[in-house]
Amino acid sequence: MTLNYEANVRRAASSAKGSQLHPAATMDSAMAFIIIGFILCGNFIYLTNARRGPFCTPCRSLEECNQEPNEVCVWGESRDNCGRRECAKGPGQRCGGPINVYGNCAENLMCKSDERCHGCTELSDANFLCYPNEY
């Protein structure tokens, strides 16, 4: 009877070994889960810290929204996603981008898929600047 009991214990132990996960497989799964978590957290931080976007804070007052930009606006002004004044982009300058972080084009210009302002705009009396220069 003792031999039969010991054989059953050995058989149970060997079958239990086969059903256990290898430690390396468990570690790989945990590492993948951690990496995915870091990627998701990084994307959230990027979106919330972007210069503007869907997570920006709206103006607290009309004065804040109408505050002049810190630089001279050669191409005029536009409003960002939060309603604040900003300098518009000129021909060939970078625009658009994820959640429009690179800004808006000046009047008569269009932001295209290459993230550049395309079209022509007037510099002064009858002087135009165009991008691309094929216009």
From TrEMBL:
UniProt keyword annotations, A-Z: Membrane, Transmembrane, Transmembrane helix
Positions of transmembrane segments: 29-47
Alphabetical list of Pfam families matching this protein: Neuroparsin
Gene3D superfamilies found in the cross-reference section: 4.10.40.20
Name the UniProt record assigns to this protein: Neuroparsin
Organism of this sequence: Popillia japonica (Japanese beetle)
